Amino acid sequence: MAAFLRRGIAGRFAWLAVAAIAVALLTAPCAAATYHPAKLKGARAVAPGSAPPQVDAMIHAANQIRHKPYRWGGGHREWDSNAYDCSGSVSYVLHGAGLLDYPLVSGELSNWGNPGFNKWVTIYANKDHVYMVIAGLRWDTSYITDGDRTGPGWSELMRSSKGFHVRHPAGIHQW
Fold first, then answer.
1. Residue 173 is assigned to a structural domain of this protein
2. What's the domain range around 132?
3. Using CA of residue 42, residue 123, residue 54, residue 99, what is the dihedral sign?
4. Co-location of 112 and 26 in the same domain
């Protein structure tokens, strides 16, 4: 009986050791998996060096139209507009990364891409509004904290996603 208990205890310790090694391997950071959020420098976002090329392109595109005036329907007739609405500005950013050929309205964006959250880019859309979070910064036309506060801009503060469909672009890897 004592030998059985020793084997049982040794077996348990062996299992715990294997489990600890597995957890360490699964949670250990590696260079390719490093995530750093974007930062605001004034009213412009700066992509982290670890960002995928599409994320870098999105941030660049968003910086080009930030603080353009808000106008309902803005950005839907042509990419380079003098004003943008929520879906026009999100569409512009996705187009800047080569992910969208023509503007979509917020209801269409609620079904675009893949469902769920992505660490790099997540779109929050419903029939009335759309915004996105790119590398940890919110790109939106309301509740903006990067200065002007009219039209599209950046914010480090998040807003409630209640009532929004959560989507992300296909092909942008989680890490």
1. no
2. 35-168
3. negative
4. no
